[in-house]
Amino acid sequence: MNLNSLAEARRAAASPLFADLAGDIGASFEFFPPKTEKMEAQLWDTFRTLEPLAPRFVSVTYGAGGSTRERTHATVARIAAESNVPPAAHLTCVEASRGEIDDVARAYWDAGVRHIVALRGDMPGGAPYQPHPDGYANAIELVAGLKKIAAFDISVAAYPEVHPDSDCVQSDLDNLKRKMDAGANRAITQFFFAPESFLRFRDAAAAAGIDAPIIPGILPVSNVSQTRRMADMCGTVIPAWMVSLFDGLDDHPAARQLVSATIAAEMCRRLYAGGVRDFHFYTLNRAELSYAICHLLGMRPVQPAAEKAA
Ligand code: FAD
């Protein structure tokens, strides 16, 4: 199917509730590397469910200090080998020398992986960030280092509600600009729940001379207390309205899923109204919520979940 007919199919599929969406939406999905065979089976089911939505890419996270190095590589390499969806491998600088990181990057290139999500990472146990003595000091240096190794397509992280290590909005933006100047092709944001904070951030980034795409990271929430722990670590605000929407649903998991999909789809609709066309979903290795939200946004399967042609 060519791009025009793909857009046409999605336009025709848009529900009346979201009838103002033009059907030109692109999605990407983030997974974490599985620890057990059971988790691997679940991840692969999730991938095969989302694959027919023709994501722009799928990415696989990297654990602190390279703790998931082999699992991240195995997952990304399998996606590259067995599907037509472009995979992106996350890579962090924490507790590794430049040589070690460069070796990981070369192994990705050799496995046909062209897209890296280049990150500084965090110290284990939440300690203040300390660069490895022979390592890349931050994501800016990592991006520059990767560009010397090969012509990687590089995504970096961005923070609509400001990174906790940053002194102010402006220095966070300066940092993002320097990552772009070092060779990054796009930014993917930390999750957030106020569409206006993303739109403000995107506009401030444009005013700061950042013209690469900034893709909002969407976390469908079905458990507020779990999300609060993650939000506290990365400085994301959980609005009072969201807490109250989940109030009283502790014993109603199915209702929580429905509320979650509604909140996330509404947020995407508002972002769409603000001009956003690409969305990155934090799937937590579960397909249903991301699939439902994409469906509400008018996305429909466009290819069978077939094995990659030999
Ligand atoms: P950097 O951009 O290097 O810096 C982080 C912040 O520190 C900057 O925003 C800046 O404000 C501040 N800062 C840095 N240097 C200076 C300075 N000299 N002066 C002032 N301020 C400064 N973590 C993982 O461990 N594995 C993953 O797979 C992973 N995937 C992620 C994917 C996305 C899309 C996002 C948004 C985050 C991800 N993270 C992951 C989390 C990330 O590693 C942390 O947020 C980490 O704290 C910062 O990484 P960074 O690449 O943004 O760092």
From TrEMBL:
Pathway: Amino-acid biosynthesis; L-methionine biosynthesis via de novo pathway; One-carbon metabolism; tetrahydrofolate interconversion. GO terms for biological process: methionine biosynthetic process; tetrahydrofolate interconversion. SUPFAM superfamilies: FAD-linked oxidoreductase. Its EC number is 1.5.1.54. The keyword Transmembrane does not apply. InterPro entries: FAD-linked_oxidoreductase-like, Mehydrof_redctse-like, MTHF_reductase_bac. Pfam families: MTHFR (PF02219). GO terms for molecular function: FAD binding; methylenetetrahydrofolate reductase (NADH) activity. Gene3D superfamilies: 3.20.20.220. The keyword Glycoprotein does not apply. Its cofactor is FAD. Keywords: Amino-acid biosynthesis, FAD, Flavoprotein, Methionine biosynthesis, NAD, Oxidoreductase. It catalyses: (6S)-5-methyl-5,6,7,8-tetrahydrofolate + NAD(+) = (6R)-5,10-methylene-5,6,7,8-tetrahydrofolate + NADH + H(+). GO terms for cellular component: cytosol. Belongs to the methylenetetrahydrofolate reductase family. This is Methylenetetrahydrofolate reductase. It comes from Sphingopyxis witflariensis. The lineage of its organism: Bacteria, Pseudomonadati, Pseudomonadota, Alphaproteobacteria, Sphingomonadales. The gene is metF.
